[in-house]
């Protein structure tokens, strides 16, 4: 893997003939000098993420409407050091557990859901080699990512046909098309995945993003998560050395059994599902924060309540009741998410040094813990982000306020994979004691 080349970062830029607009990283250049070192402890990391969230929240409605590729916003994440929270200290990382990383995703999502999503996907993809690569590949990849403060995208979407991989001597070659590719446009490295021709074996690899064989279509114009750059991408003749095939023997050109055929190699899936749930939680918390500020300042009491007429909105029974109910459900969902995050951290810390020690049963327990969080955060998040309008009033639907973005963002991502299947999965677990077979979504 080689360093990425410089890319156009502002104004109307072009990628392989297609015009697109992007934000200018210079907007946040002051923070490159403000944050000169990584936080020292958990409280410091959370405070840093909260500060980033508050910065992004100031103009999130405007940026959301403009829908420009978020090079500046990703630069802010880099300045803050948030991309490095999981990485080993020997290469400049924070060496923190996943449980803390999930809290940072939640905090950033509170202020800007798209950037919380990008942070979450980056943290997942940046650990790919740790899960499916050899120890040497994991170490080499971490050094590359952390020493350059790279942002990682991924063109993996499993619902599309897999990328086709051809063997070409000392290299293998990717070709294909993916309908979704979160963060790719603003990434330094991209994770590709496909199936080697003539086999059923999958290969993961990191490649530099800025090269002629990666053609972003710039077609992400959806109702929510507009700055997540989740549009489609065409992959043409991307050549990768066999030594960079994660978990493969470059000499034999075949998977290494003790790396890719054990339960540990499937941990990327529950880990990213919990990324999703913390994204949803952050969005719900952000909606409550924004709604409460509006209610306290602008919501009026109902004037036609007869003898029960109130003088302020905060005296209204139904407003107090709704806020209390929303708060309770978000707090409960947060506690459930924190419990699952602690389990993810425990499994990684216990089994990374001896990957074969993770059993299928233990992996199944983790999957069901994460599925429970997914169900609860989906239900709670949708209810809260739609329900805040009940406690803010008709004027709160104005575009300038942008209170609708929370529901739009949450509704967009909760369609990633049907939560009904998570409910069924949990039902089989509870009634029959059946853990799900590891898949791209469980």
TrEMBL record:
InterPro entries: Acyl-CoA_DH_C, Acyl-CoA_Oxase/DH_mid-dom_sf, AcylCo_DH-like_C, AcylCoA_DH/ox_N, AcylCoA_DH/ox_N_sf, AcylCoA_DH/oxidase_NM_dom_sf. It comes from the Eukaryota. GO terms for biological process: L-leucine catabolic process. Residues 274-416 form the Acyl-CoA dehydrogenase C-terminal domain. The keyword RNA-binding does not apply. Residues 54-140 form the Acyl-CoA dehydrogenase/oxidase N-terminal domain. Gene3D superfamilies: Acyl-CoA dehydrogenase/oxidase, N-terminal domain, Butyryl-CoA Dehydrogenase, subunit A, domain 2, Butyryl-CoA Dehydrogenase, subunit A, domain 3. Pfam families: Acyl-CoA_dh_2, Acyl-CoA_dh_N. Keywords: Flavoprotein, Oxidoreductase. One of its GO terms (molecular function) is 3-methylbutanoyl-CoA dehydrogenase activity. Residues 1-21 are annotated as: Disordered. This is Acyl-CoA dehydrogenase NM domain-like protein.
């Amino acid at each position: 893997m080689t360093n990425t080349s410089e890319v156009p970062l502002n104004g109307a830029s072009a990628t392989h003939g297609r015009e697109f607009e992007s934000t200018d990283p210079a907007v946040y250049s002051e923070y490159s000098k403000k944050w000169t070192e990584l936080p020292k402890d958990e409280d410091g990391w959370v405070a840093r993420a909260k500060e980033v969230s508050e910065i992004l929240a100031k103009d999130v409605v405007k940026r959301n409407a403009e829908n420009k590729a978020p090079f500046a916003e990703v630069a802010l994440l880099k300045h803050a050091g948030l991309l490095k929270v999981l990485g080993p200290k020997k290469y400049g990382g924070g060496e923190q557990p996943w449980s803390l990383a999930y809290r940072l995703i939640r905090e950033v999502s509170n202020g800007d859901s798209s950037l919380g999503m990008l942070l979450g996907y980056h943290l997942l993809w940046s650990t790919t080699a740790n899960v499916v690569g050899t120890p040497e590949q994991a170490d080499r990849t971490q050094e590359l990512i952390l020493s350059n403060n790279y942002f990682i995208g991924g063109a993996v979407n499993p619902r599309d046909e897999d990328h086709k991989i051809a063997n070409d001597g000392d290299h293998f070659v990717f070709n294909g098309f993916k309908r979704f590719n979160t963060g790719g446009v603003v990434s330094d490295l991209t994770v590709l995945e496909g199936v080697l021709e003539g086999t059923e074996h999958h290969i993961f690899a990191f490649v530099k993003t800025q090269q002629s064989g990666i053609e972003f279509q710039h077609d992400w114009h959806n109702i929510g998560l507009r700055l997540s750059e989740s549009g489609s991408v065409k992959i043409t003749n991307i050549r990768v050395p066999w030594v960079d095939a994660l978990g493969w023997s470059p000499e034999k050109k075949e998977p290494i059994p003790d790396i890719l055929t054990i339960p540990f190699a499937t941990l990327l899936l529950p880990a990213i599902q919990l990324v999703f749930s913390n994204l949803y939680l952050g969005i719900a918390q952000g909606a409550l924060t924004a709604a409460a500020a509006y209610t306290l300042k602008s919501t009026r009491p109902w004037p036609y309540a007869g003898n029960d007429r109130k003088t302020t909105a905060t005296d209204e029974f139904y407003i107090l009741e709704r806020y209390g109910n929303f708060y309770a459900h978000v707090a409960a969902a947060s506690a459930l998410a924190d419990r699952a995050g602690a389990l993810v951290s425990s499994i990684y810390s216990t089994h990374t040094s001896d990957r074969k020690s993770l059993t299928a049963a233990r992996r199944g327990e983790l999957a069901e813990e994460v599925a429970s969080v997914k169900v609860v955060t989906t239900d709670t998040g949708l209810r809260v982000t739609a329900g805040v309008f009940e406690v803010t009033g008709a004027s709160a639907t104005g575009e300038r306020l942008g209170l609708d973005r929370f529901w739009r963002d949450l509704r967009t991502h909760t369609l990633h994979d049907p939560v009904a299947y998570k409910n069924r999965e949990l039902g089989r677990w509870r009634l029959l004691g059946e853990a799900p077979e590891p898949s791209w979504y469980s």
